[in-house]
Amino acid sequence: NYLISFSFQQRIEIHKLRQGDNLILGFSIGGGIDQDPTQNPFSEDKTDKGIYVTRVTAGGPAEVAGLQTGDKIMQVNGWDMTMVTHDQARKRLTKRNEEVVRLLVTRQSLQKAVQQSMMS
Amino acid sequence: MYRRDERSRATVAEGSALDMELRRGCCCSPAPAPQEPELQRALERALRVREGARRLLPACSRPEQALETTKTLVLCEARVVAAGGELQRRQEARLRGARRPSEGGPGAEPVPCRGTVCISDLRIPLMWKDTEYFRNKGELHRCAVFLLLQVGAEIHDTPTVLVDRTLTDICFEGAVLLCPRFQLLAHTTLSLAQVHDGFRTHDLVIAADEQSPCWVPLYGRVCCRLAARPSCMDTPAATGTLRLQAPGAEGPGGTPLFCVLRGPGLLCYGSASEAEAGQEPTLTIAVTKDTRVRALDSGGRGQPPGVAVTNRLGGEEVTHGLLAESTAEAQRWLQAWGQHLCDLAQWKQCCEELMRIEEPPPRRPPAPLPPQGSLYHQTAIDPSDDIAAVTEILAGHGGAPRAPGPPPWLSLFEGPPLRSPSPPRRSRPRTLSLDARLSTLKGRGGPPKPPHSSSSSSGSSSPGPPQRDPPRALQSRV
């Protein structure tokens, strides 16, 4: 038995859901260049100040689109997210005139599973 | 690329409780399997996403939305079947083979080690008919294609690629669009024999024919690089001190060496520090699947316990005797050899050389523009202008240490449009815009801006002066 580790970055297209006056995506983010990177449980490198997905709402637009907890968001609609503050990241995701956000994410969760199983 | 009405490929026993659950398409989770929490979670998640996608599909207003949702549905179906089937299989295995030999016992069969596998550079050649290729009228044949890759209970997908006659190959890197019903066009199965540290071509088994509505003229091959790195190539099976017996000698004695059993060899160093320093080993004994190992028993002749390693070199058998410090040590080494030879036998060609495993591309820091490459240098009007002079000006004010991030002079080329240019400070004429900016630079003279405020390309307001606050770990819902 062996597990696969992929070199693809994932492109994820989330169609926001209208809830009253708001457009929601159904996930939470952590990270940013103004945040403390050592508190990020998902990053391999603890100096990584990138934006990570910390939670995905069950059945929400993000989950349906394939976003997973632990994903690192590299770009949103073409804008770089590797060198932004937390607030800039939040703003880029929640533009009121955008119904669709196209994310470029890096997924490392599967690699972690392989390393953990090799150490056990 | 699964047809919605196609029979599943995983083995879910017909008529079993799980099978009935899956057929009903029930959104309540199947019988809980507390022994397999991860698989259980994966299955529940796939069922949830499938339910969500099913509800979303009729509400899709645009074709791209419908396409992606259908793709998600196909993937979820495959995941549900795979995870469910795997749970079933493990359950049955548990019920059947209740008594398994305890792992790690002296008489136990060694289980081959795990490894990392990576498939990359995927490319599927197409063979368009000349009638299609040169056609100018009528509907262009177009469809969206993605790959579904399955290993055991794991399902992965690639992004969707739009295929039309402008493509000679389907390469997987690309982007989306167009018709919401997927059909399996072809499949192939790759196994250990196909693992190779290079680009290889494999045959595809074509499922759809020309009459099918979603037909694509596949040439019949897929190219990719399938690499694997077993953990026995990275992690040593055993390390420790052994004495190398002189050939033909018996009894104690021999050179003590720090030995590391890893990958295709037993590396023997003068000391542990040499091994850690990464120096060349004093001696390397080749280890292949044809290597034979036996125990050297401590007999009455004062023979210390150890391991004899025999290789066949050029028709001759060469045996190295390695003496251990104690029986327990010899036992430990013997077990490690057993495990390692099992790994080599199972992983075969993957143990000959270390294969490169692709890593997801690292986070790219913003690339600073080198002075020589600046666009403004290339628009200098007077040919007597040269790069060196301008660089000199910039360097004169660049004496201050640069903060990490975009170089400070980068901000010269952003910002509001120019007002009236100041008179040239040098005898040689320059482009007006550059000169006006340079005079602004001369007026500044302060330290370069911190990266916070200079990366203002987004247009959103920066959070103010650099903080000295204690570090925070904010989370935001979006």
From TrEMBL, chain A:
It is found in: Cell membrane; Cytoplasm; Nucleus. It is a peripheral membrane protein. One of its GO terms (cellular component) is cytoplasm. It holds the Pfam family PDZ. Gene3D superfamilies: 2.30.42.10. It comes from the Eukaryota. This is Tax1-binding protein 3.
